[in-house]
UniProtKB/TrEMBL annotation:
Any one GO biological process: protein transport
Keyword annotations: Cell membrane, Membrane, Peptide transport, Protein transport, Transmembrane, Transmembrane helix, Transport
Name this polypeptide is given: Nickel transport system permease protein NikC
Protein transport keyword on record: yes
GO molecular function: dipeptide transmembrane transporter activity
Transmembrane segments: 12-32, 81-104, 111-135, 141-158, 196-224, 245-265
Membrane association type: Multi-pass membrane protein
Principal cellular location given in the protein's record: membrane
Taxonomic lineage of the native organism: Bacteria, Pseudomonadati, Pseudomonadota, Alphaproteobacteria, Rhodobacterales
Domain ABC transmembrane type-1 residues, every copy: 76-265
Keyword Coiled coil among record annotations: no
UniProt subcellular location: Cell membrane
GO-annotated cellular components: plasma membrane
Similarity comment: family membership: Belongs to the binding-protein-dependent transport system permease family.
Organism: Yoonia vestfoldensis
């Protein structure tokens, strides 16, 4: 009997759907916002300092007369791109090393576990700060530091999951039949690990964006005049009485971005 098309669609929990819609709306604004209202996020006009919205700056202007619309769109491209690059790097490293530890065992596994535990003993932001001291105020520094922090979680989850799957009768049978590691990974390992990896990736992306904004807020992240969410907040904080809506713009954007990622991750977990 042919299954109706309605039954072929996966069931999406409400929270995951809301998170996905939020992220799509933010991505559309970040990509198409500057095309709908052309402008330069770095262009200054002191005559428009803290001015309200107009046709060229629908979200108003900051203290240097720069368009908050264009700066916010640029910031919503920068932080997620750094976070996604760091998560992708961490996921590949954690997945590879976790598989290696589970497959080899012995001293290889012990050495990798000791390395992961040693990194986990240090605060994540401290590791990022150490890397940023070498490469200050650069996207590469954030990418390297966040990757160094995030790969541990992927490693631990992959190792724990792969150990049980590799010991299962199905995998033992596949190895006896001569199937290679690529087939075992694609058929047995990845289907078991994929939901967990996607959840970890979504939480890792939210964590990375929060870390970038937090370091920007304490002025040790991106340097001015780079449009970045935390840096925008700290620049506008002294003017919160004169232009509270200007300060709320990056705050609400950060909240929506983190809420979308958290809801999406929670939906995967469900």
């Amino acid at each position: 009997m042919t299954q109706s098309p309605r039954h072929r669609w996966p069931h999406w929990p409400l929270g995951r759907s809301i998170g996905a819609v939020l992220l799509v709306m933010i991505a559309l604004f970040a990509i198409w916002g500057p095309k709908l209202v052309p402008g330069d996020p770095f262009a200054q006009s002191l005559m428009a300092s803290l001015a309200g919205p107009d046709a060229g700056a629908p979200f108003g202007h900051d203290h240097l007369g720069r368009s908050l619309w264009h700066r916010l769109a640029a910031a919503l491209r920068l932080s997620p791109l750094i976070a996604l690059a760091a998560v992708a790097t961490a996921a590949m490293a954690g997945l590879g090393l976790g598989m290696l530890a589970a497959a080899c065992g012995g001293w290889t596994e012990r050495a990798l576990v000791i390395l992961a535990d040693a990194l986990m003993a240090l605060p994540g932001l401290l590791l990022v700060l150490i890397v940023l001291a070498i490469m200050p105020g650069t996207a590469t520094g954030f990418w390297a530091g966040l990757s160094l922090v995030l790969w541990v979680e992927f490693f631990r989850l992959t190792r724990a999951s792969a150990r049980s799957v590799l010991a299962s009768p199905a995998v033992q049978a596949a190895r006896l039949l001569g199937f290679g590691w690529a087939y075992i990974f694609r058929t047995h390992l990845w289907p078991e690990m994929a939901p967990m990896m996607l959840t970890t990736a979504a939480f890792g992306t939210a964590t990375a964006i929060m870390a970038i904004a937090a370091l920007g807020f304490v002025s040790v992240g991106m340097t001015a005049p780079t449009p970045e969410l935390g840096l925008m907040m700290v620049e506008l904080l002294p003017y919160w009485r004169e232009a509270p809506l200007a300060l709320l713009t990056p705050v609400l954007a950060s909240f929506a971005l983190l809420l979308g990622l958290t809801l999406l991750a929670g939906g995967h977990r469900a």
